[in-house]
Amino acid sequence: MKFDRKQLLLYAVTDQSFGKSQPLEEQVKEALEAGVTFLQLREKELDEESFLNEAIKIKALTDYYHVPFVINDDVDIAKKCDADGVHVGQSDMEIVKAREVLGSDKIIGVSVQTVEQAKLAQSQGADYLGVGAVFATSTKQDAKSVSYATLKQICESVSIPVVAIGGIFNDNVEKLEGTKISGIAVVSAIFGSDDIRQATKNLLKKAKDIIDV
């Protein structure tokens, strides 16, 4: 799936650790209806069969709403559920290997924190970059911070789109204005909210205010 960088505007990453009684697919449906433009399924605790079953359900939803859908880290699950792609970190499967497994038409996103990592990921065939943590985040305790200046330098050093992630909420989105990012990626700002629909609408508006689309 070839995607438009505009689809990265509001990038939601799932997280079931908030302990909601509502099934994840219902949470995702609310977020998609409210305007999420890109979705990543991240499951650190599920066994492979449960992860795949969840992925298949979410894939049906994202297909219906015409939103790109990627799997976090697990290239095999991405292939089995025919996701639109995968998002890998610096310590996960190499981009080239992921491309071999998934094929040329799938989306591959890569987490980076430096200009050097960004340039390398682009040269290896990444379709977009996730850069963070741009703010302190509770969903990834070991995440190192990336400064505003470094985020901007990364955006200026590559031609592929860049998404900022890490501790982004409705009240600090404006601080990313001027970095030339193509989107914001959020976890708890949507899935940790008591009102997923309203949180999504608020974030989408803020993202549109600071990002040229």
TrEMBL record:
The keyword Magnesium applies. One of its GO terms (biological process) is thiamine diphosphate biosynthetic process. 2-[(2R,5Z)-2-carboxy-4-methylthiazol-5(2H)-ylidene]ethyl phosphate binds at residues 137-139, 167, 187-188. One of its GO terms (molecular function) is thiamine-phosphate diphosphorylase activity. Pathway: Cofactor biosynthesis; thiamine diphosphate biosynthesis; thiamine phosphate from 4-amino-2-methyl-5-diphosphomethylpyrimidine and 4-methyl-5-(2-phosphoethyl)-thiazole: step 1/1. Transmembrane segments: none annotated. Mg(2+) binds at residues 73, 92. Its cofactor is Mg(2+). Its EC number is 2.5.1.3. Condenses 4-methyl-5-(beta-hydroxyethyl)thiazole monophosphate (THZ-P) and 2-methyl-4-amino-5-hydroxymethyl pyrimidine pyrophosphate (HMP-PP) to form thiamine monophosphate (TMP). This is Thiamine-phosphate synthase. It comes from Candidatus Galacturonatibacter soehngenii.
